[in-house]
Amino acid sequence: DIQMTQSPSSLSASVGDRVTITCRASQSINSYLNWYQQKPGKAPNLLIYAASSLQSGVPSRFSGSGSGTDFTLTISNLQPEDFASYYCQQSYSTPRTFGQGTKVEIK
Amino acid sequence: QVQLVQSGAEVKKPGASVKVSCKASGYTFTVYYVHWVRQAPGQGLEWMGRINPNGGGTHYAQNFQGRVTMTTDTSISTALMELSSLRSDDTAVYYCAREGGGGSFPRLETWGQGTLVTVSS
Hints:
The structure holds 2 protein chains of 2 kinds.
Chain A: E1 4-7, E2 10-13, E3 19-25, E4 33-38, E5 45-49, E6 53-54, E7 62-67, E8 70-75, E9 85-90, E10 102-106
Parallel strand pairs in A: 2-10
Antiparallel strand pairs in A: 1-3, 3-8, 4-5, 4-9, 5-6, 7-8, 9-10
Chain B: E1 3-6, E2 10-12, E3 18-25, E4 34-39, E5 46-51, E6 58-60, E7 68-73, E8 78-83, E9 92-100, E10 107-111, E11 115-119
Parallel strand pairs in B: 2-11
Antiparallel strand pairs in B: 1-3, 3-8, 4-5, 4-9, 5-6, 7-8, 9-10, 9-11
């Protein structure tokens, strides 16, 4: 199975900040990497697919990059509604493993 | 619009089984894989498996092999997930999700609202 490791597990930031979350795969997954946002009590919501493609309807302050084993999710100009948990997931092979998540909290 | 609506919360005793349903609307049900993901309280997302509604082919995560059964009823555009031999650590919210991407860069584009399963004696 491919292991996905996210860092940090949590971070504190202020509105307007630029935030970066990293995700590392235990083996190359090319660009088969998705990012999801989850707010408390809600289902996850797809933000980024294929490592860097923005899902329809997602604000452009969200961006993704990387390929192979190392990936990043960047939120520029953090907004109040962005305080949530974020998960990466590989779709290169089954099982479709998730990272352990990153909680973005208000500083 | 594409929508997945799941069945309501369940409370089960250890050793019992639970069946969660996921009714799809707004698209052709047999075209897209359905995945199941669970989330224990305060924990992260755990992928359980997926089913191809066109033919019923499945792939289960090793952690659930022998305990989980995923099926579909195409006549009512519904996916079903049954988990047996329930333990207290199966207490979680269970989600269904539709895979998008058409086979290219698969992703979980649409999610159900989640079903809380509580296992308690």
